[in-house]
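Schema walk-through. Below, the input block comes first and the output block second. Nothing else is stored per chain. Lengths vary across the set, and this one has 160 residues.
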Amino acid sequence: MAHIRLAQREDASAIAQMIRTAWAGKVAPDSSGHQETAEKVRADLEKGYGWVVEQDGKIIATVRLVPHPFEQGVGEIKKLGVLAEHRKQGWGPKLIGVLEEKAQALGLDELRLAVRHDQYRLVEWYSSLGYTLNPRLVYSAANPLTPPPFVLHKNLEVHP
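--- output ---
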């Protein structure tokens, strides 16, 4: 049975491999996901949080939350990925839900994410989860080798 758990530093290599596998054949070769490394995963986990879906000891899906490098109260969603054979089972929305709960508990006001310029269908998918495309926002870690990504955001409700 698959379950969601908090990612640990020792998961970094498996998370990086899972992202590269999930991106293979789905995203253009110049996507940063193809260059995902354990070091990048560990750096994000040290700054923020990550979650994995684990099934039979194997990571089948993941997402990370890191603080925005310049804007207080803003978190960035990074590297949501689900292995092809586990898509359409609701893991993406479940991971985003867990991430949003943590962001609210941390007192964040807003979440942002970037979608590659050639993946507009993902803008529609994130929109279905309450995220709004904002052409005025610039992603803090955009790939300089590709056109700028679409940036979406969601204001979080403050819970007293």
